[in-house]
Amino acid sequence: MESSTVTVQEKSTARRNFLSRMMDNPVITKELKGRMRGRQGFVMIGSYLALISFFIIFIYLLLTVDGSVSNSNPSFLQTIGKVIFSTVVLLELLMLGFIGPALTAGAISSERERKTIDLLRTSLLSARALVFGKLSSAVVFLLLLIFTAIPVQSLAFFLGGVGMAEMIISTLMLVVSAIFFCTLGLFFSSFSQRTLMATVFSYSSILLSFIMFIFLLFSISILDSSSAFLVKNAMAIVTWFLFSTNPFFAAVMSETILIDEQSLFITTNNIIGTSSIPLPSPWIIYVAFYIILTILLISLSVYFVKRPDR
Hints:
By secondary structure, the protein is mostly helical. It has one domain (about 30-305). Helices cover about 80% and strands about 0% of the residues. The chain has a two-stranded antiparallel ribbon. It starts with a helix and ends with a helix.
């Protein structure tokens, strides 16, 4: 009994120490106070929720405009709930892709423009603390956007057709996406001399990834049907993994697999030409891929911040 009490106390102490170390970082304190003290943060949150609410009302009115369909039909209400939920998640992913890099593209490059980067380097603040401070403040703000939208998003529960598993997976994908988009902007800001350049690089990389996705989509249609069995399956598996790195494909296909196969983790459906080979659900590949990529970009950002400017 005493050992379990000691373990709980140790965990509580470790948690307090972690939070105190985070709040002891002056960059986090400065950025969060500056972001939430002004009007801009609240305007962004209000606009974010207003846009999501507008789309929910618009989709509901669009689906119920046909008077021949009874609104009391449970299957019809479940369809409305699924459409509203899926649209809101895709809309949030799109907005995170725009907001995330904008919050961090000037995090380090703006210090170079103001000629204050050398002062930060000569202070007691390490490059790792500077990077995590800049990143954490932006991530906290995006997490605030995500979690403030959950009550609006959960309106789909009243209509039916949406389960807790879908809510948890979608929230996990949104959180991972928010961290990655912030990290992406910070990475380009860590070596760019101008904020404009870092912003252009950030959005160009996101646009390039979607162009590559479309290119892969067309490449599937020209796969030679006479190719060897193993070659076709290998290409299909690689394509599945590459497709799963796209947020919209991962969200839509994960939802489809969950509905059609009632499976959260594995699919055996012949979606991309494989012969019923078990494949992980796209959300698993998406989360794992972007966690690894985020860790890599953070490490590179620390390296570039630590490296002297030439």
